[in-house]
Automatic annotation (TrEMBL):
It comes from Dyella halodurans. Its EC number is 2.7.13.3. The keyword Zinc-finger does not apply. This is histidine kinase. The chain crosses the membrane at residues 12-30, 153-174.
Length: 455
């Protein structure tokens, strides 16, 4: 995943940019206030005027120009005026130039602040030659700090503010990241210790960031694992119960065979023992198939499967069993339709459905099959005309080893429909059962069409 698509990345970027801008603005403001506050009376305008006059009298305009350059380095624009004319050039704002002559004609000392952070001083000074001159000085702050010093103060204040703000943002980020991570870590440790009910909780992290999504995914995974373990335990308990009866019968049969006095009598017991062994073998095979389906093996191999042709072949194979009970298998004509899946697993599912329908159909009954293709899926229904299933048992019909109140009518282990459900779900489909009007059970499968069929 690209970091530019991460909400956490954008939150951090915006936070740090905002912090830097805030530190820059607040640093400039505090620097100005600090310099003005700590050195507000440091400039002595009268002494400054005396220094300018002494430089002029000692070396003329050249010395005065050198003195003015030195003052400029210290943040002050200054020059001497004589008879309203500057003895060396001075840079003044145009608005100050318009009012300067008025202040010079007043012939008195003034210190003005025409705008915030701008100071203008006009000072009268009488030189050794007896002439009166006037100092005009302009300073951005009422201070004699050098520009380099002010820059140093600004950088120091900005650096301190940046450290403070970045520390606050870092604490906020660590709090928002470490909290969900610690919750996930704690839930993981609880699961590793065997507490399968451990959950992170839905309130970790922000609503849509990656950590909240990770917490939700962890909880979904934990719920799935808990459900699978609970299912496996239930199946194991049911299987142990189901195996106990044939094993007990097998033990009794063999004991009776061992005690038999005649070979013919023992042969009968051995025949019964073989039937019980076949029953155990069949049940074990079906449980192994169910276990493999639970493990997700069907998703490994997918290929186009022509559904109607496969169903026709399953009907043909089941014809022998149906003929023995005088049951008619009717597959309503349908056009060829393609699904994407595992042919062997689908074949096993159809065989189980047909076998189940035949077992519960009365002698001379009828089993009807139909296939109907829709826009995105194909619906396959199989209906028998047997006793149906009590409404209260329909929800449990696909549970492994479940045998309803009608189970006595036919042999079975309660695994056939459970295997069918796993196969259908492994193919992204759905299965449901309902009682038909007039009697009998309808089992309907919905399987997604192959991509080419959808197009």
């Amino acid at each position: 995943m690209s970091p530019f698509k991460s909400s956490l990345y954008w939150r951090l970027l915006i936070s740090f940019c905002a912090v830097n801008l805030l530190a820059l603005a607040l640093g400039g403001f505090l620097t100005t206030r600090f310099a003005a506050y700590t050195t507000a009376v440091e400039i002595n305008w009268a002494n400054l005027a005396q220094g300018a006059d002494q430089a002029y009298e000692a070396g003329g305009t050249a010395a005065l120009a050198e003195w003015a350059l030195q003052q400029r380095h210290e943040g002050i624009e200054a020059s001497l005026y004589e008879q309203g004319q500057a003895l060396v050039p001075i840079r003044l704002p145009s608005s100050v130039q318009g009012s300067l002559q008025t202040w010079l004609d007043a012939k008195r000392d003034v210190v003005l602040q025409p705008w915030p952070n701008l100071y203008l001083a006009v000072q009268q000074v009488t030189g050794a030659d007896g002439k009166t001159r006037q100092l005009v000085a302009l300073s951005r702050v009422h201070t004699r700090l050098r520009p380099q010093t002010r820059q140093t103060i600004f950088l120091a204040i900005q650096g301190v503010l940046s450290l403070i703000f970045i520390g606050m943002v870092g604490w906020w980020v660590a709090r928002n990241v470490a909290g969900p991570v610690e919750a996930i870590r704690h839930a993981t440790q609880r699961m590793a210790a065997g507490e399968l009910s451990a959950r992170v909780g839905r309130d970790q992290g922000h609503a849509h960031d990656e950590l909240a999504q990770l917490a939700r995914d962890f909880d979904t995974m934990a719920e799935r694992i808990e459900a699978l373990v609970a299912h496996d335990r239930s199946v194991l308990q049911d299987l142990s119960h189901e195996l106990r009866s044939p094993l007990a019968r097998l033990h009794l049969i063999l004991d009776l065979a061992r005690r038999s006095k005649h070979a013919d009598e023992a042969a009968g017991y051995f025949q019964q023992a073989e039937q019980e062994i076949d029953r155990l073998d069949s049940m074990t095979g079906e449980m192994l198939a169910l276990s493999r389906l639970e493990g997700g093996i069907p998703g490994v191999s997918r290929e186009p499967v022509e559904l109607v042709g496969l169903l026709s072949e399953c009907v043909r194979r089941a014809g022998l069993e149906a003929h023995a009970r005088e049951i008619t298998l009717a597959l309503h004509p349908a056009a060829a339709v393609m699904v994407s899946g595992n042919e062997l697993l689908l074949e096993r599912a159809f065989d189980n459905l047909l076998s189940n329908a035949i077992k519960f159909s009365p002698v001379g009954g009828r089993v009807e099959l139909s296939v109907q293709a829709g826009k995105d899926k194909v619906a396959l229904s199989i209906r028998d005309h047997g006793p149906g299933v009590p409404s209260a048992e329909l929800e449990s019909l696909f549970r492994p080893l479940f045998r309803g109140s009608n189970a006595a009518r036919a042999d079975g282990h309660g695994l056939g429909l459970a295997i069918v459900q796993r196969v259908v779900r492994a193919h992204g489909g759905d299965i449901r059962a309902s009682n038909a009007d007039g009697g009998g059970l309808i089992v309907q499968l919905d399987l997604p069409l192959a991509p080419a069929e959808r197009a």
